[in-house]
Amino acid sequence: MPAKCAFPTCNNTQNIDKLSFFQFPLNESKVCAQWVAVVNRKKWIPTMSSKSCEKHFDISDFYNTKKKKRLKPDAVPKHIIAPDRIEEVFELDISIILILLSIIEV
Ligand SMILES: [Zn+2]
């Protein structure tokens, strides 16, 4: 089943929209907590199948290999695509990150 982007306001779907999708960095709890903070879904924890589409990252967050677009290991999504298609740049709230970190590291 094609993965839908984890951002609640984003309708991009893997294999339907010609975009790159990236798994949540579950092994990197600090980076992962920042991703979760930006996704900003209530009581939501990412799984192995959770993915974000490339639209939420800056060009500088990527590097290219011969085969495909890759994400730098410390890249964090920062563009939220609002339903009205006006992009907002998300400011990370450090208090949210700290709460998330305490959840993830249990
Ligand atoms: Zn998306």
Automatic annotation (TrEMBL):
Keywords from the UniProt entry: Cell cycle, Coiled coil, DNA-binding, Metal-binding, Nucleus, Transcription, Transcription regulation, Zinc, Zinc-finger
Subcellular location: Nucleus, Nucleoplasm
Record-linked Pfam families: THAP
Annotated ranges, domain THAP-type: 1-80
GO CC term, one of those recorded: nucleoplasm
Family: Belongs to the THAP1 family.
Membrane-spanning residues: none
Gene3D superfamilies reported for this sequence: THAP domain
Protein name: THAP domain-containing protein 2
SUPFAM superfamilies: Glucocorticoid receptor-like (DNA-binding domain)
Molecular function per GO: sequence-specific DNA binding; zinc ion binding
Annotated InterPro entries: THAP1/10 (IPR026516), THAP_Znf (IPR006612), THAP_Znf_sf (IPR038441)
